[in-house]
């Protein structure tokens, strides 16, 4: 029986790893006969796993979604990743789920999880029904109308993105004829949704990049980018450069390509490194340094 149980767990792990498995391949991986695979599949079905038989020359098996939640199987890395994710969540349901998973973990894994104690700062709560309404409209390609802090909005919803614990809707704003990002906790959807629409292409590669660029002041990234040489070792610059590009020139000098909301803001950001600066370009950055120099001189007197 122990050998059979171990084989059942191995079979379940394989079925979870990919969509379709030919019976002969499963038999080869488990080093048993196709008949034994059929018996083991029947045992898993009795435990509540919805395994269907696939037709065709390589007839095999597929693990389908079911109406009930059967026992789940995770490898060590999956179990740790799930526990860490639940620990950094902020809902009561996540806390209960973490307690349940911890109770059934082997001692070796429980010890590893207990060494990580994290407290997440909760973002503004988002009603689950709001996320479901938005997701449904996205999947159905239906116009979404909702109340927002800026008034009634009509959009073609494109994608939901999470960043720093918050949910954001990326959508084409019909009234402003432009792409916009909306915080989901500020959205109150109107039901039913509007007519269907043909999905548009984002101005960037994906929705996550679009949200990132929103915080940089432009759908395509920082509106102001400049290049300078700093009289500092690259090791002193890299920890504070964030998404900038850094190149070592000598052990004591490095090249920095960095962006910001505005040219004065970019000059001020570079000035924080407290080092001699050589501006490579563009001219707007040089003018911003001159502008700040005049302002700072005036402030000093």
User: What is the number of helices?
Assistant: 11
Largest sheet: 5 strands, antiparallel
Strand order of the largest sheet: 7-6-5-4-8
Based on DSSP secondary structure assignment, what is the total number of beta strands?
12
Beta-strand proportion = 15-25%
Structural category: alpha+beta
Rounded mean pLDDT is: 82
Uncertain runs are: none
Give the end-to-end Cα distance, rounded to a whole number of Å: 87 Å
Radius of gyration: 28 Å
Order of secondary-structure elements: HEHHEEHHHHEEEEEHEHEEHEH
Amount of helix: 40-55%
Overall 3D shape: extended
Oligomer class: single chain
Describe this structure in words.
This protein is α+β, with helices and mostly antiparallel strands. Helices cover about 40% and strands about 25% of the residues. It contains eleven helices and twelve strands. The protein has helices spanning about 1-15, 25-30, 35-45, 75-90, 90-105, 105-115, 130-140, 205-215, 235, 265-270, 285-300, and strands at about 20, 50-55, 60-65, 145-150, 150-165, 165-175, 180-185, 190, 225-230, 245-250, 255-260, 275-280. A five-stranded antiparallel sheet has the order 7-6-5-4-8. A four-stranded antiparallel sheet has the order 10-11-9-12. The chain has a three-stranded antiparallel sheet with strand order 1-3-2. Strand 10 and strand 11 (about 255-260) form a beta hairpin.
């Amino acid at each position: 029986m122990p050998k059979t149980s171990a084989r059942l767990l191995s079979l379940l792990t394989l079925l979870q790893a990919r969509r379709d498995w030919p019976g002969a391949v499963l038999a080869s991986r488990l080093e048993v006969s196709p008949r034994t695979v059929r018996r083991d599949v029947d045992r898993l079905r009795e435990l509540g796993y919805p395994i269907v038989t696939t037709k065709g020359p390589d007839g095999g098996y597929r693990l389908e979604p079911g109406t009930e939640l059967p026992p789940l199987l995770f490898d060590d890395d999956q179990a740790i990743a799930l526990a860490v994710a639940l620990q950094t969540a902020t809902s009561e349901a996540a806390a209960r789920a973490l307690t349940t998973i911890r109770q059934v973990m082997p001692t070796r894994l429980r010890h590893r999880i207990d060494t990580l104690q994290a407290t997440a700062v909760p973002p503004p709560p988002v009603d689950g029904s709001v996320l479901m309404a938005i997701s449904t409209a996205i999947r159905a390609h239906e116009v979404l109308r909702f109340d927002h802090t800026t008034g009634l909005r009509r959009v073609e919803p494109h994608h939901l993105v999470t960043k720093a614990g918050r949910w954001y809707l990326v959508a084409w704003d019909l009234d402003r004829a432009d792409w916009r990002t909306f915080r989901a906790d500020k959205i109150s959807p109107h039901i039913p949704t509007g007519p269907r629409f043909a999905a548009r292409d984002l101005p960037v590669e994906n929705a996550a990049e679009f949200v990132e660029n929103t915080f940089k002041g432009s759908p395509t990234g920082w509106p102001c980018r400049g290049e300078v040489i700093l009289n500092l070792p690259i090791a002193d610059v890299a920890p504070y450069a964030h998404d900038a590009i850094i190149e070592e020139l000598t052990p004591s000098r490095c090249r920095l390509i960095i962006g910001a909301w505005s040219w004065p803001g970019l000059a001020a950001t570079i000035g924080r490194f407290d080092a001699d600066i050589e501006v490579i370009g563009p001219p707007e950055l040089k003018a911003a340094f001159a502008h700040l120099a005049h302002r700072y001189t005036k402030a000093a007197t």
